[in-house]
Amino acid sequence: MAAPAASTASVSQPAYPPSSLNDSPTDTSPELVNELLMQVEQMQQEIAELRGQIEQQGNELRQLKRDGDNRYLDLDRRIVYLTTEVDKKPVSLSETPRASAQDAYNQAMTLVRDKQFEQANQVFGNFVKQYPEDALVANAWYWNGEVYLVRGEYPSALESFRTVIDHFPDHGKAADATYKYAVTLHKSGDVEAARHWLETIRERYATSSPGTVRQAEAYLKKMASTK
């Protein structure tokens, strides 16, 4: 389903006065900062778990090579080609062809964790320009929007989240980007547009992202209670 068009005018000149949930554009919301840092910590834990799984799989492959040397020569030749490089030196991100992209992304995430939000936006902005085809570019756009939202830079946050929605609709961050797009619209004062996008989440991600759907429903209730 095509993403509904967002009104640029409604962002720069809100049709509705900011509700009581709005933050001052010039103030950093402690609630948003804490939420952002919790997401970073969760992501780092997930990365650590994935690295452990990769290491375990590497060990299993080497064991398979040792056990199959005499029986599966063709398979052995392919495994030797792969495992010889692994055995020469430890695998690290800095030794892969995409090391520079990974390093740049890690630098931006470190800045987020250290609450250096302005610098983080600069690094994320450089990343999406320098590595537009990288596997992490959708993540970079999403986190760029998160940081802009924390800083109260709502137009820039909307642009970042909308980029994920429009250009990476099947990405794992698409549902979260849609939710944060709606939140940012609400904080910008566009209540009706925010409600529309929150309801869109219920329709679009009911199966693929039930957790995000629950967040959207909770925010809708929160909006209704402050009328």
Note the topology.
Layout: H1 8-12, H2 30-68, H3 73-88, H4 99-113, H5 117-130, H6 137-151, H7 154-167, H8 174-188, H9 191-204, H10 210-225
Overview in brief:
With 227 residues, the protein is mostly helical.
- Counting structural domains, the number is 2
Gyration radius, in Å: 22 Å
Helix/sheet category: mainly alpha
Cα(first) to Cα(last) distance is 31 Å
Overall shape: globular
Note the run of SSEs as H and E: HHHHHHHHHH
* CATH fold type of the largest domain: Serine Threonine Protein Phosphatase 5, Tetratricopeptide repeat
Average pLDDT works out at: 78
Helical coverage, percent range: over 70%
Q: Quick one: how many beta strands? A: 0
Low-confidence runs of at least 5 consecutive residues? 1-26, 68-81, 83-97
Total count of helical runs of at least 4 residues: 10
The CATH homology group name of the largest domain = Tetratricopeptide repeat domain
User: What is the CATH domain class of the largest domain?
Assistant: Mainly Alpha
Biggest sheet statistics? none
Strand content: under 5%
The CATH architecture classification of the largest domain is Alpha Horseshoe
Pfam families: TolA_bind_tri (PF16331), TPR_12 (PF13424), TPR_6 (PF13174)
Biased composition (Polar residues): 7-30
Keywords: Cell cycle, Cell division, Coiled coil, Periplasm, Signal, TPR repeat
Region (Disordered): 1-30
